[in-house]
Write a structure and sequence with these properties.
46% helix, alpha+beta
Length: 214
């Protein structure tokens, strides 16, 4: 009975979690239905709420926003809107930080979170998976030098929290696995092993004397 119960749990647990996450996301997106006048909302038109209408409105708003800001007039409006936000003390600092992060992460030409690596952390001989986020810049680069990389080392099984590290490039091993496979490996705590690439090349690990941590 225990074996049958575990087998059933392995079938329903991933499905239940997937449905819960999708329900949460769609529920948040459905809140945009409140942007419509009351007379135009589904409850007023057909007498009951229609799930998913708000999510479609959200996707439509995002698409139209991207379409309008792709031309000259739209870009001028965006610059005017950002200039207005920059005049508000508290909003200015929050908006600038969030915009810099989103521009870096979601930019098609950006390199943030495009490469999974191995790094020794938190002590020598203990390895974990991290993600390249770029290279140190500004005043930090003057103190650390140019041969450094910035890493995000997520925690398990919640990859939304983690640690930010700046380490020598020679101390990391670049992996051929995709970011998606690396995340699966982290979230599953090593249970879901990524498939090895067909053509692999031997990579010498960093010297045992070099590691990241105390």
């Amino acid at each position: 009975m225990k074996r049958y119960f575990i087998t059933g749990l392995l079938i329903w647990a991933p499905l239940g979690i997937t449905l819960w996450v999708l329900s949460f996301i769609l529920g948040m997106m459905d809140q945009s239905i409140m942007l419509l006048p009351v007379a135009w909302q589904p409850r007023a038109l057909v007498g009951f709420n229609i799930p998913g209408v708000g999510a479609l409105i959200t996707l439509l708003i995002v698409f139209i926003t991207g379409l309008l800001t792709a031309n000259f007039i739209g870009q001028r409006l965006v610059r005017w809107w950002e200039a207005l936000l920059h005049r508000i003390p508290v909003v200015r600092s929050i908006y600038q930080s969030v915009k810099q992060i989103s521009d870096t992460v979601f930019s098609p030409s950006g390199q943030a979170f495009r490469q999974a690596v191995l790094v020794q952390y938190p002590r020598q001989g203990s390895w974990t998976i991290g993600f390249l986020t770029g290279t140190p810049g500004g005043e930090i680069a003057k103190h650390l030098g140019n041969d450094m990389v910035s890493l995000y080392v997520p925690t398990t099984p919640n990859p939304t929290s983690g640690f930010f590290l700046m380490v020598p490039k020679a101390d990391v091993i670049e992996l051929e696995m995709s970011v998606e496979d690396a995340l699966k490996y982290l979230i599953s705590m090593g249970v879901v092993t990524p498939t090895a690439p067909k053509a692999t090349t031997a990579i010498e690990p960093p010297d045992a004397d070099t590691y990241v941590g105390d």
